Amino acid sequence: MPEMITDPEIIAAYNEDALGLKGKFKGLFRPNSEAEVIDMARTCISKKLSLTPQGLRSSLTGAAICEKGAAISLERMNRLIDIDVKRKVAVVEPGIILSDFKKSVEEAGLMYGPDPTSAQECTLGGNVATNASGARSLKYGATIDWVQGLRIVDGKGRVLALKNGLTEKMCAGYGALHRPTQLFVGSEGTLGVVTRIEVSLTELPANGFVGIVFFPDIKSAIDFTIEAQYKPAYKAASMEFLDQMCLEIIRPEAKGIAIPNDARAMIYFEQEYNDDSEKDHFLNLWFPLIEKHTPLSDDTQIADSPKEKKHLHDLRHHIPSKTNEESIKAVKTGGGKISTDWAVPHNRLHQLFGYFEEIRGPLGDMMVTRFGHLGSGHPHFNFIARTRAEKIIASEIDDLMAKKAVALGGCVAGEHGIGKMKRRQLALQYPAPIIGAMKALKKELDPAGIMAPGNIFMNDNDDTAQLPL
User: Fold this and answer.
1) What's this model's pTM, rounded to 2 decimal places?
2) How many structural domains does the chain have?
3) Which of 99, 109, 206, 310 has the most crowded CB, counting CB atoms within 10 A?
4) Domain containing 133: what range?
């Protein structure tokens, strides 16, 4: 087994996440194989040393860092083991970079559906840990819908080989266990270390275009999105939203995309199609809907070349990248980015946005950006707090919004997970007996409590407090 790295300079490189949050790891493991992971886990168990798995630390909830113990970086376990074109499945190690994996799959003529914005900076193992999704979740769902098999080294140093059943029907025990991999998707390292992943693949879409639509206010953008969702004729793969602050962020980088001066919101949607006649059909559907909901319909733009679509993707990615940069700066003065992750049924979006306007006063002139997966009812509100006092205020607003989202039939975390930053919100989502059942599962698989301490749960005496980072 490789020795634990204790060089402070090396550890420092693994002890900070995308928001600039830092932990206090005492050591670092970088295994090359499952056998080494087993050895490391058993060594940590014997020494009562906690172990926190890492991908590329693109986490927005503090999940990849910890106040104690050792980190286990899976970046070296990055092999693409197999793509079975006939069965439409792929087997990979957890450290493979998502964008590299998706490219290999596409070269084989297939597609892996989930597409987190951070695809070039995240790993498939990290996606499993948080149940990541992204823009195209509107059509293709989240990571949990694609994972068919996992190998896990648990907190006892055992290997668990899990496969979802392939039968049409199942009635063997509790329904939540019929697809056993789902217990581990979203577990954020608390149940063990993922060492191998099997995912489903699907056919690669023949063609696609992106529509860019501008609106004079957020209400019109939401109305447009809701109507498109209600009518099955519209089959968008994604419907992404940018507010006025986001438009100002991307304006200097727009390069060929004309953003009207009076635009206060933008929706861009992806539409897949098979041939030119189907493309014309969809364009003839979308344009009357656009004209109905915005006086800026003449500013609508259609992007259908690979270069144009990549440019739009890069612009969308520029927003979280920019806010993450601002967060890292603010951490130095006690602040940082509060990255919200709540989601609601899309027909409750007006109520969610309206409630924010009612309670946003305490944020003052704090930088606020609103963007993301409006078609899935999952907009991200980001608050950039400049000081510790502002961070407390922003966290309180986040909690109020999370509570409102649950009351509207939604959830506190749509794709980032709970980590350490959202633990106080878990009790808003689930009654105490359900949280107790999750803890009981963790105790069965990790009796010594060494796996990713602090992720998802606080200690038994306080499930709602937030660990300062």
Assistant:
1) 0.91
2) 3
3) 99
4) 80-203
